[in-house]
Write a structure and sequence with these properties.
By secondary structure, the chain is of the alpha+beta class. It has two domains: 3-61, no CATH class; 67-150, no CATH class. 42% of the residues lie in helices and 15% in strands. A four-stranded antiparallel sheet has the order 1-2-4-3. α2 packs across α3 and α5 packs antiparallel against α6 (132-150). The longest helix is centred in the C-terminal third of the chain and has 19 residues, at 132-150. The N and C termini lie far apart (60 Å). The relative contact order is 0.08.
C-alpha cells in the first residue's frame, strides 16, 4: 500500500486522543462526578485518564508500598500497608482502604493481637507462591507487630463502621463478619 494511502487512512475520522493503544467504553457516572471531571478537562476521556493517573498511577510509579506507621493523634499511630492478596485470606482480618493502594488493618472484635501475629507468621511459612514484594511487606508487618507486642506498645481500638448497603436510615446491618 502506498505511503499516502496509509496517511490518508489515519487522517480520516476523529484524531487520536492518546499516543498509546486505547478503546472506547461506555460508563455511567453521577452528575456530580461529571462536573468534577469537567474541571480537569473539557474532554471526558482525558479527564478520566488524568484523574486515574493521579489517583493510581503515582502510587504504581513509586516503590511498592510496604508498611508505614502514620501518627493519627499524639503518640498514637496506625499501621498502613499496601494491597495484599495473602492478608485477604485471613478470615477475621480486613484491609480497609483509606486511599488508593493504602490500607489499615482491622480485626473482628475479640481477636487477640497474638492471633494476628501467628496468622501473619503462618502466611510467611505456608505461602510459597507469594511475590517478592508482598513477602517483603508481610515480613515487615510481622516485625512491626511482634516488636510492638513485645514492648507492650500495641493496643486495639474500635472503629465505627457503617453499612453502605441499603438506604439511609435503614436498619443496621452486622458488618463485623462481612
Amino acid at each position: 500500500m502506498p505511503e499516502g494511502a496509509i496517511r490518508k487512512k489515519r487522517d480520516a475520522g476523529r484524531p487520536r486522543k492518546f499516543a498509546e493503544p486505547s478503546r472506547p467504553i461506555t460508563v455511567t457516572l453521577p452528575t456530580r462526578v461529571l462536573r468534577m471531571l469537567q474541571e480537569l478537562s473539557p474532554d471526558r476521556a482525558r479527564a478520566i485518564a488524568r484523574a486515574t493517573e493521579t489517583a493510581v498511577g503515582a502510587a504504581k510509579e513509586r516503590e511498592p508500598m510496604r508498611v508505614e506507621v502514620v501518627e493519627v493523634a499524639p503518640g498514637i499511630g496506625l499501621i498502613i500497608v499496601g494491597p495484599s492478596e495473602s492478608l485477604h485470606r485471613i478470615p477475621w482480618l480486613r484491609l480497609a482502604e483509606i486511599a488508593p493502594g493504602r490500607y489499615i488493618l482491622t480485626i473482628v472484635p475479640g481477636t487477640a493481637i497474638e492471633i494476628v501475629e501467628v496468622a501473619i507468621s503462618d502466611i510467611l511459612e505456608d505461602r510459597e507462591d507469594m511475590g517478592q514484594s508482598e513477602r517483603a511487606m508481610i515480613t515487615e508487618i510481622l516485625k512491626w507487630i511482634r516488636s510492638l507486642r513485645r514492648a507492650q506498645n500495641i493496643t486495639k481500638a474500635e472503629l465505627l463502621l457503617v453499612s453502605t448497603r441499603g438506604r439511609r436510615g435503614s436498619r443496621p446491618v452486622d458488618i463485623a463478619g462481612t
